[in-house]
Amino acid sequence: MTDLNIPLAGVIGNPIAQSRSPQLFRHWLKTYDRAGFYIPIHVTEANLADVIRTLPKMGFVGCNVTAPHKVDVLEIADLATDRATLIGAANTLIFRKDGKIHADNTDGYGFIANLKQGAPGWAPSIGPAAVLGAGGAARAVIASLIDVGVQEIFLSNRTRPKAEALKSSFGTKITVVDWVQAGNMLEDAATVINTTSLGMTGKPEFRVPLDGLRRGTVVTDLVYSPLRTRLLIEAEAAGCVVVDGLGMLLHQAVPGFERWFGVRPEVDVDTRAAVLA
Ligand code: ATR
Question: Do the interacting molecules here have an ipTM over 0.90?
Fold first, then answer.
């Protein structure tokens, strides 16, 4: 809290100018008529620990964390939630009144909330999920799928050992599929999730063959720039239910906003419009 008793929070990353979180938080502060500040903070790797230890002393109640600091902040925090420990990364730091820094990871929560909102019939029981990619985002997605009760996950990654490593940390529900066979696993999937950077503006195009996609399969892409990726366009044409990745970004911010500013915010069309403006 500041001396004026107004909550102060922000987002740390390197770079930070691209982050949409300040726009999002300011939209919610205005919508819910809350007094508060939420600012972007550029933090280099070398300064990370010092900055995190200093923010509470400056009156910050917490901060979000974006690339490349999500793994390192877990080491700096005094405590971590089970889900942050399992994922091995944190995107939310809570500066507690007792001086302790508490790390949480709400990416998986945001992923599931977005899926449920974008595909209202979606439930863990609808069948196997196919996950493309095995980086940090995939870790959060897989942890959340297992947490809500998905029984079977097919996982494919260009660098196969990274997929095998995820299988060893999450257990037997995962079947690793070779990257060249990734298109085949889509046939058996009720949910398909792209966690790779393929299709993102400035990155190589998404080229996994999509002929295996079935009508009614729920397809989501964590890439949200562009909002309508080739994967989503082709999946929609194949009769799939498509969910874009912007909602995950919005939903993962809900727990932090609620904790710091005292209202659980809605993610709706106005929220999307505010962030895309
Ligand atoms: P994030 O934390 O956002 O998941 P990351 O850890 O860098 O970012 O992971 C990026 C993912 O995109 C990885 O699964 C990566 O595959 P590799 O593990 O083989 O690197 C995947 N990816 C990036 N570029 C790719 C490409 N050209 N072809 C296939 N997969 C790619």
Answer: yes
Q: Would you name the residues annotated as active-site residues?
A: 70
Per residue in 208-259, pLDDT tens? 999 999 999 999 999 999 999 999 999 999 999 999 999 999 999 999 999 9
In the chain, where are the structural domains located?
8-105, 108-248
Question: How close is the Cα of 43 to the center of ligand 1, in Å?
Answer: 24
Q: Each residue of 11-25: pLDDT tens digit?
A: 999 999 999 999 999
Give, in order, the Cα–Cα distances in Å from 9 to each of 16, 83, 95, 147, 175: 15, 22, 10, 29, 40
Q: Name every protein residue with a CB atom under 6 angstroms from any ligand 1 atom.
A: 133-138, 157-159, 162, 195-198, 204
Instruction: Residues 108-248: name the CATH superfamily.
Output: NAD(P)-binding Rossmann-like Domain (3.40.50.720)
Q: Is 160 left (phi over 0), alpha (psi -120 to 50) or beta?
A: alpha
Q: What is the CATH number of domain 8-105?
A: 3.40.50.10860
Nearest ligand 1 atom, CA 137: 4
Contact 243, 222 (CB under 8 A): no
233 CA → ligand 1 middle, Å: 21
pTM recorded for the entire structure: 0.96
8-105 shares its CATH topology with 108-248: yes
Which of 18, 70, 158, 208 has the most ligand 1 atoms within 8 A of CB, as the residue to mutate? Answer: 158
